[in-house]
Write a structure and sequence with these properties.
alpha/beta; TIM Barrel; 3-stranded parallel sheet; 14 helices; about 45% helix; binds manganese (II) ion
Length: about 325
């Protein structure tokens, strides 16, 4: 079945490289694979897409990108450079690639302008933000003009995992535990919950957030979110219960989560209209992700929605 994939990464010169940064962390075969594929945007990548039946990959700069840049001015120019690079690569394969904007959130006004440029001039389909920027989260008041523009443009924002700003001791001693084994899901699910608890979605009721990895565990936790929300004093009074915002404002992708039980839970929690296929290329295997969704025990109309229809509608592809 035809597919659109939304959490598909590239790397270009001048940015942190997952493979190189994790040289003492990853198995050598994984490092080689990442080195070979992350910066490659032609034959290898297209061949992996073809083998997996992926029509379109929506590309984004690999985490953390400029999100860890301390110098705001450098973040602004580096993000522009990443977006220009991506636009040029998309132009070489316009029917196969689309793009998510990379944004310098350190400088909120510049981030608004860059988002606008990426959507209206470069034809990108939304933004992918690699989590917090030096410990500042997207519920911060400085980002209200950003969300206002996101709402006006009608594009989704993908919140992608990144390392926690400060690593808690529970992650000590076990390579990978602070990263994609567990820490990134806790970090990114927490980030999305901050947006909900801040009242962002009451203020902007049309916003859509995308989370990878089957919604970073949130679909599994809806009852508990509501149950525990009731016992804490809120910072902001919300119009609805937390689970309602998850259901109305969050799309989950299957990136890096080829597990039928998790898919069943995500569909049951959010509805098949809010689940979208993805790989997390090249950190995960395109063919494995494709075989998973092709064989998943879901109805054919659901499979169509998840494989491409939801993404085509949300991203106006
Ligand atoms: Mn990813």
């Amino acid at each position: 079945m035809k597919k659109i994939a939304l959490e598909e990464h590239f790397w270009t010169e001048g940015f942190p490289h997952t493979g190189k940064a994790g040289a003492d962390l990853f198995e050598p075969w994984f490092l080689r694979l990442i080195d070979e594929r992350l910066g490659e945007l032609s034959e290898l990548r297209i061949a992996a897409m073809d083998a997996a039946g992926i029509d379109v990959s929506v590309l984004s700069l690999i985490s953390p990108g400029v999100q860890i840049e301390r110098d705001a001015a450098r973040a602004v120019s580096a993000a522009q450079r990443a977006n220009d690079f991506l636009a040029a690569e998309i132009a070489k394969h316009p029917t196969r690639y689309a793009g998510f904007a990379h944004l310098p959130m350190q400088e909120p006004r510049a981030a608004v302008n860059e988002l606008e440029r990426c959507i209206t001039s470069l034809g990108f389909k939304g933004a992918l933000i690699n989590g917090h920027s030096n410990g500042v989260y997207l519920d911060d008041a400085r980002y209200l003009p950003f969300w206002e523009r996101v709402a006006a443009l009608g594009v989704p924002v993908y919140i992608h995992p990144v390392h926690m700003a400060v690593r808690p001791p529970v992650f000590d001693d076990y390579p990978g535990l602070a990263a994609s084994i567990w820490g990134w899901t806790a970090e990114t699910g927490g980030h999305a919950l901050r947006l909900i608890l801040s009242g962002l979605f009451d203020r902007f009721p049309t916003l859509n957030i995308i989370l990878g990895h089957m919604g970073e565990m949130l679909p599994f936790c809806l009852w508990r979110l509501d149950s525990r929300f009731k016992i804490y004093r809120p910072k902001v009074k919300l119009e609805r219960m937390p689970s309602d915002y998850v259901r109305r404002h969050i799309y989950a992708t299957t990136a890096g989560a080829c597990q039928p039980e998790a898919l069943a839970c995500t569909i049951a929690a959010l509805g098949a209209e809010r689940v979208m296929f993805s790989v997390d290329y090249p950190l995960e295997d395109s063919l494995e992700a494709a075989r998973f969704i092709e064989a998943a025990p879901i109805s054919e109309p659901e499979r169509e929605l998840i494989c491409w229809k939801n993404a085509a509608k949300l991203l106006r592809l």
